[in-house]
Amino acid sequence: MTLSDIATLRLQSQQIAGTKLKSPKEIVAWMGAMQAQDYHMSKWAIGTRLPNFTDIEIEKAIDKGEIIRTHLLRPTWHLVSAEDIYWMLELTAPHVKSSVNSFNKMLELTDSIFSKSNRIIEKALSGGNHLTREEIMVLLEKAKISTHSFRSTHLMFHAELNGIVCNGARKGKNHTYALLAKRVPKQKKLSRDEALAKLAKRYFTSHCPATLNDFRWWSGLPAKDARNALEMVKKDFISEKIGEETYLLTNNFSIPKKENASVYLLPAFDEFLISYKDRSASFPFGNHKKVLTNNGIFRPVVVINGHVTGTWKRMVKKDTVLIETDLFQPHTKPTKALIKNAANKFGKFLDKKIALT
User: Fold this and answer.
1) Dist CA 54 CA 44 (whole Å)
2) How would you classify the pairing of strands 237-242 and 245-250?
């Protein structure tokens, strides 16, 4: 197995190169969790894996609570299926909380302040209310809880990690919060070992070929927990060593045949890149700065045969979406035609015509 094979297999395991799944929540459940701080791009991350669905249809699944947007795994937004939210939050919230302790201390946010703010937030959202962050912050300020200097972010972050709130239905263009217990009925708890094994199996099935270091990065788990999780599930996978790294693959994997070129316009922060510690199979180091900024922003990428060969950006107009590509090297006319086809798929997703430059 070569690095090129790894890249192609990841397109398949991540459901980018064809899928039998039928709904947005099935895609998210298959992936385990999908990074989602860029909300509009996170919907396209589902859409590129579910070609017949539109932005509006995926938004409905999120608004209905089939998919939950909250903080887990690492201290950033993720999409997770409603069926997985509780066990995954219970497993990963402790280490996500500990990762921001120094910021909380700097902002003078104490346990007593968090307890008070959580009570106010829970009361405000009771009865099925969905409120914007701004609406909640007004209530906290009235209760003499200062929300300036990123305190608002950390107050809501803490409420999410405590399983009190998650995303609500959008109000126009504004995001809202709702009570998690109202959105998703409580479910049977898993033991810690059950949750570790479930997370590892979900990751290696949907992201293979992948290594222990990849899993540790994606999950955010402490090293000991990540190793224990791998030990519990590795009997269900095949191990393949390339150089110094050992990759896990599903038992039914096969090296893909060389076929016609495949082209995808993948969104910013897509799991195809961000879910691996080592991205060299798809992402030559020489182009890192063109895709990944110094402050950790992943740009949308053009992927040809599993390899990142450029970036793209979009500007949404009333009836048209303008797509501009920045390719790392010249491409043939047939490849450019495939890029246009990929752009047309994005236009169909938004129900708009495309103009490609």
Assistant:
1) 9
2) antiparallel
Span 300-307, average pLDDT: 93
In the block, residue with structure tokens 């269900």: 236
The H or E element that residue 356 is part of is: strand 353-356
251's tokens: 């038992």
CA–CA dist 136, 50 (Å, integer): 35
Pairing of strands 177-179, 165-167: antiparallel
Give me the residues paired with residue 294 across strands. none
Contact 59, 47 (CB under 8 A): no
| Per-residue pLDDT reduced to its tens digit, 53-105 | 999 999 999 999 999 999 999 999 999 999 999 999 999 999 999 999 999 99
Joined tokens for residue 13:
């395991």
pTM above 0.85, yes or no: yes
User: Among 195, 190, 83, 65, which residue's Cα sits nearest to residue 128?
Assistant: 65
The structure tokens 């039914």 sit at 252
